[in-house]
């Protein structure tokens, strides 16, 4: 029989219960402040639900009634510089943090509400109702509440989506050598999200001052924790990551306060992350004004049992027992809270003349529809006064440098001049600059700003997003291959790319994501994608695609100055090993965002291309003798494409050829331009469905060697010369049609 040794976890996991002595010794001012906050949040939520029942709230409304004790009990421990974010059910979290900001000395049941409190309530309700005076200009609605100045950095519609960002806030606090902490709120559903678990690990590994606060309201919509996980005591996850963890009754605000106080003290001392599980209960359904029992997944007896433990009732009973408030005080507080919310909603509403007895929002309060797209990206005003340089502007000595070495050199230079830049990624701190040497020398020069990450793309990409939103640091996150974008897709597309717009377009998102394109490396389908097309469909991102070492310097400098997220594409196999001329002593120049580069002048056809296909196109033009104008697009997102340069060239040539680098099947057709020049058509095709995916069009190297056994047409009449391809070529003939529809709308027959 083998020897068996019982193992123990290094991190504590405890349950905290508030005793009668705790209630007797609690600061009266603390208890009164909590009570007023609870009443205000309750009245706010009731008003929001009433508006929702009148169909005045566009979209879902996720009320927090029943869960207020967890938010108030935990947030009342925090300072103004501490930061929180939360989930789609986050009104109570947002209001608790904001109330602490506008009333730093606390609230008293007998005092009238200040103008600042009233303004907070009005703007919060306006946001939920989609009105212009809301904190996010009405764009956030119920699920995207943010007031950065108050330390409320945003609630989130994606379950678990906000958690990685909070690790970025925490990293910023730690690196800035403050004692500030971050708290991220999420529920029993989010505990099973991969990026959440990745964030647990990253925070523990780096000892970040973040509290993972689990609001266990017993149901992820209608699914119980018992159904969703083998261990329904959710805070049990913490010790497995070496995170000290607390379990507490979330219906008892003082117990939550005591647990959070211990957790915050632990974090402020530099001991790393904590976890708190507060067992709470949402009185209503996932969204809307009806209880969960109306939908059959729980019964009225269960709901009544939890309501008997209401956090407001608990506080009121203890305060009256200690004679800190009278029953009249409590009645007046309830009425006062309801009245302030009635006054707030009245400021927003007016009778609807089209339906007697109903109300509508005042027309003057709606956002200007023309501003709907404002703030998707910044206005690039950060470049005001910048002097740009292009290749032709350099008159000094140049030297030849390998592309991959320039990648490291420019980052080294920028980190020398800007202490806010932080670089992170897998293995970038070792192997003499990572797997390809692209970060060579950075760790030695800046050991505290070069972060070798776990293999957790969602976690560290989200952490970078949080750093960018915080604003004190400029993260540069490297994804080893572009295919790994999909591993971190939620953070890249739903969070980083949308953050500026969904929070009102007011706050910058300065982040650079470097990704390698691995076509022709032999790594197969999971390491070889070109993400340009995919990234172009995502709002918020700018896309940089430098094709030469010199362009890389200027474009990376601009990417790091830009206050929008920028993905920089780097071609591993085709460009890293190449060399090019760069200025010997100037690493500080900028190439303007939104400018293409005309690499060759021509008059017969415009070739639009990028990355490694720029030089291949130039070589093909040289070999074939075509009078082509070759344009390196450089900036690929729709907002940054140089339409002026492109349009000027097309008006001159009246012909367009798009050259891409996607892998393709052997040539299917050749289109003759003249007796010496042709275009070869190839594509990637999903043979399982017969679905056309993407064409690859490029100039042939030697026409006469490639015309045998091809589908050949003369140009411009497109007269068919020969045909011996299979019937599937109709797909590619359609492509030819598309590229020539501006020319007499030529019809090609099979």
Task: Give the topology.
Layout: E1 13-16, H1 20-25, H2 28-53, H3 68-75, E2 83-85, H4 91-102, H5 115-128, H6 163-175, E3 182-187, H7 194-206, E4 210-216, E5 219-220, E6 223-224, H8 225-228, H9 237-240, E7 245-249, H10 253-268, E8 274-279, H11 300-307, H12 311-321, H13 327-348, E9 349-351, E10 359-361, E11 398-402, H14 403-417, E12 421-425, H15 442-445, E13 450-452, H16 457-470, E14 474-479, H17 489-502, E15 511-517, H18 532-536, E16 542-544, H19 549-561, E17 565-571, H20 572-575, E18 579-583, E19 597-600, E20 605-609, H21 613-624, E21 628-632, H22 643-653, E22 656-658, E23 669-672, E24 678-686, E25 691-699, H23 703-706, E26 711-713, E27 720-722, H24 730-740
Parallel strand pairs: 1-7, 2-3, 3-4, 4-8, 7-8, 12-13, 12-14, 14-15, 15-17, 16-17, 20-21, 20-22, 23-26
Antiparallel strand pairs: 5-6, 9-10, 11-18, 19-21, 23-24, 24-25, 26-27
How would you characterize the overall build of this protein?
This protein is an alpha/beta fold. It has three domains: 13-337, Rossmann fold (3-Layer(aba) Sandwich); 381-593, Thiamin diphosphate (ThDP)-binding fold, Pyr/PP domains (Rossmann fold, 3-Layer(aba) Sandwich), CATH 3.40.50; 664-750, no CATH class. The chain is 35% helix and 17% strand. The chain has 24 helices and 27 strands. The longest helix is centred in the first third of the chain and has 26 residues, at 28-53. The chain is globular and about 90 Å long. The relative contact order is 0.09. Residues 663-750 have low confidence and may be disordered.
């Amino acid at each position: 029989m083998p020897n068996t040794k019982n193992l123990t976890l290094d991190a504590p996991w405890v349950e905290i219960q508030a005793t009668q002595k705790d209630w007797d010794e609690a600061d009266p001012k603390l208890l009164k402040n909590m009570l007023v906050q609870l009443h205000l949040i309750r009245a706010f939520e009731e008003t929001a639900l009433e508006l929702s029942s009148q169909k005045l709230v566009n979209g879902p409304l996720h009320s927090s009634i029943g869960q207020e004790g967890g938010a108030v009990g935990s947030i009342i421990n925090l300072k103004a510089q501490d930061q929180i974010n939360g989930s789609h059910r986050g009104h109570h979290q947002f209001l608790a943090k904001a109330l602490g900001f506008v009333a730093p000395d606390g609230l008293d049941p007998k005092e009238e509400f200040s103008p600042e409190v009233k303004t907070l309530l009005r703007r919060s309700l306006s946001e939920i109702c989609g009105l212009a005076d809301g904190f996010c200009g009405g764009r956030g609605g119920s699920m995207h509440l943010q007031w950065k100045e108050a330390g409320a950095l945003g609630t989130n519609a994606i379950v678990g989506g906000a958690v990685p960002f909070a690790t970025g806030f925490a990293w910023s606090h730690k690196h800035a050598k403050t004692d500030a902490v971050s708290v991220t709120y999420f529920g029993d559903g989010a505990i099973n999200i991969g990026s959440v678990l990745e964030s647990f690990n990253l925070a523990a590994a780096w000892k970040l001052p973040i509290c993972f606060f689990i609001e266990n309201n017993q149901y992820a919509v209608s699914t119980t924790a018992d159904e969703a996980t083998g261990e329904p005591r959710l805070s049990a996850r913490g010790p497995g990551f070496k995170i000290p963890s607390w379990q507490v009754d979330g219906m008892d605000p003082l117990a939550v306060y005591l647990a959070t106080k211990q957790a915050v003290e632990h974090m402020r001392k530099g001991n790393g992350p904590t976890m708190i599980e507060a067992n709470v209960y949402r009185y209503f359904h996932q969204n809307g004004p009806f209880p969960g029992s109306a939908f059959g997944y729980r019964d009225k007896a269960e709901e009544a049992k939890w309501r008997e433990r209401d956090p407001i009732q608990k506080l009121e009973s203890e305060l009256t027992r200690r004679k800190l408030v009278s029953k009249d005080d409590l009645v007046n507080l309830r009425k006062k809270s309801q009245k302030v919310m009635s006054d707030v909603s009245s400021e927003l509403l007016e009778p609807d003349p089209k339906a007697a007895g109903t109300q509508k929002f005042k027309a003057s309060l709606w956002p200007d529809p023309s501003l709907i797209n404002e703030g998707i990206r910044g206005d690039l005003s950060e470049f005001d006064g910048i002097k740009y340089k292009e290749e032709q502007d350099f008159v000094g000595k140049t030297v030849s440098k390998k592309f991959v070495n320039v990648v490291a050199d420019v980052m080294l230079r920028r980190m020398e001049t800007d202490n806010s830049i932080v670089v992170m990624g897998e293995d970038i701190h070792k192997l003499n600059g990572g797997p390809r040497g692209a970060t060579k020398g950075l760790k030695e020069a800046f050991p505290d700003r070069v972060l070798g990450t776990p293999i957790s793309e969602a976690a560290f990409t989200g952490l970078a997003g949080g750093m960018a939103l915080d604003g004190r640091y400029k993260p540069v996150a490297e994804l080893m291959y572009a295919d790994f974008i999909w591993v971190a897709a939620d953070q890249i597309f739903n969070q980083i790319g949308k953050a500026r717009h969904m929070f009102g377009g007011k706050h910058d998102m300065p982040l650079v994501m470097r990704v390698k394109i691995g076509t022709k490396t032999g790594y197969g389908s999971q390491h070889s994608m070109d993400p340009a097309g995919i990234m172009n469909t995502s709002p918020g991102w700018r896309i940089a695609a430098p094709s030469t070492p010199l362009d890389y310097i200027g474009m990376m400098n601009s990417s790091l100055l830009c206050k929008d997220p920028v993905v920089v594409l780097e071609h591993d196999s085709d460009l890293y090993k190449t060399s090019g001329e760069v200025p010997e002593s100037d690493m500080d120049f900028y190439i303007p965002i939104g400018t293409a580069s005309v690499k060759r002048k021509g008059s017969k056809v415009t070739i639009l291309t990028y990355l490694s296909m720029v030089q291949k196109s130039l070589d093909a033009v040289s070999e074939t003798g075509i009078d082509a104008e070759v344009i390196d697009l450089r900036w690929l997102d729709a907002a940054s494409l140089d339409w002026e340069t492109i349009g000027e060239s097309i008006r001159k040539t009246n012909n367009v050829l798009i050259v891409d680098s996607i892998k393709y099947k052997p040539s299917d057709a050749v289109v003759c331009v003249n007796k010496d020049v042709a275009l070869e058509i190839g594509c990637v095709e999903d043979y399982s469905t017969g679905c056309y995916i993407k064409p690859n069009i490029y100039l042939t190297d030697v026409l006469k060697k490639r015309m045998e056994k091809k589908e050949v047409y003369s140009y411009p009449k497109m007269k068919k010369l020969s045909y011996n391809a299979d019937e599937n070529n109709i797909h590619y003939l359609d492509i030819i049609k598309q590229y020539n529809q501006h020319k007499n709308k030529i019809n090609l027959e099979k």
